């Protein structure tokens, strides 16, 4: 078992290998993380781990407010995640490699990272300026019939795109040819489909590529049928942003 200890960045979203993650970093705990990552030589990867939040708040309250005007704001690396942060997060996440970390005049950071490899969360350390975690790197097993399943998922995804484009009254062109490597297909479709965090998390932690593709095929067919039979999509589905507030 290969383990690694990395800074931990919890989000209300799921990161997949190969997908780009833009971040606007303004909380002090994550500013401290970025300052530490900047100490890494430019020719080495600046890695941190992203995990989806199961129970907690991505941005910790910074001042008293509704409903409790007397509440004391939480401070520290685990603010918003309870007494045991490890229980607040999903157990499978993704390593991110920060290609760009740009500090602004106000001390916040603009970060552009890419997901690289899945990891399993083993433990969380909240003793420093930011969360760190011990992680087990996960291999990507292709499983059985991944190639044939990938072809079926791509066909279903194109139909899903067409239906979604009609519902949104605009094109959902990917801007290029879709990949044909099964694991890449599985991650791209998982990231691009309009699914909630629990559904995306299930896809991330699938035991192998074939299992992920098989679940995606069912999800795409079901979502396409729903879109076909509904006059419009819920507004909340149309306003999702790819950029986290953090």
UniProtKB/TrEMBL annotation:
Name this polypeptide is given: LON peptidase substrate-binding domain-containing protein
InterPro entries registered for this protein in UniProt: Lon_prtase_N, Lon_prtase_N_sf, PUA-like_sf
A Pfam family that the UniProt record links to this protein: LON_substr_bdg
Domain of life: Bacteria
All copies of domain Lon N-terminal, residue ranges: 6-224
SUPFAM superfamilies given in the database record: PUA domain-like (SSF88697)
SMART domains for this protein: LON
């Amino acid at each position: 078992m290969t383990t690694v200890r990395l800074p931990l960045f919890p989000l209300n979203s799921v990161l997949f290998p190969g997908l780009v993650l833009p971040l606007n970093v303004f909380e002090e705990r994550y500013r401290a993380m970025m300052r530490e990552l900047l100490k890494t030589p430019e020719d080495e990867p600046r890695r941190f781990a992203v995990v989806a939040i199961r129970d907690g708040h991505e941005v910790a309250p910074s001042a008293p407010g509704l409903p409790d005007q007397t509440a004391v704001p939480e401070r520290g690396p685990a603010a918003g995640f309870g007494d045991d942060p490890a229980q607040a997060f999903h157990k499978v996440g993704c390593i991110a490699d920060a290609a760009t970390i740009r500090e602004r005049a106000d001390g916040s950071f603009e970060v552009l990272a890419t997901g690289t490899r899945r990891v399993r969360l083993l433990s969380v350390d909240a003793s420093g300026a930011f969360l760190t975690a011990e992680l087990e790197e996960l291999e990507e097993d292709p499983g059985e019939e991944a190639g044939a399943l990938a072809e079926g998922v791509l066909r279903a995804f194109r139909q899903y795109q067409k239906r979604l484009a009609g519902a949104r009254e605009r094109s959902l062109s990917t801007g290029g040819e879709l990949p044909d490597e099964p694991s890449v297909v599985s991650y791209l479709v998982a990231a691009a489909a309009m699914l909630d965090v629990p559904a995306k998390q299930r896809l991330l932690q699938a035991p192998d590529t074939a299992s992920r593709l098989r679940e995606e095929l069912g999800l795409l067919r079901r979502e396409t049928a729903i879109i076909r039979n509904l006059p419009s999509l819920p507004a909340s589905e149309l306003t999702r942003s790819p950029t986290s507030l953090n």
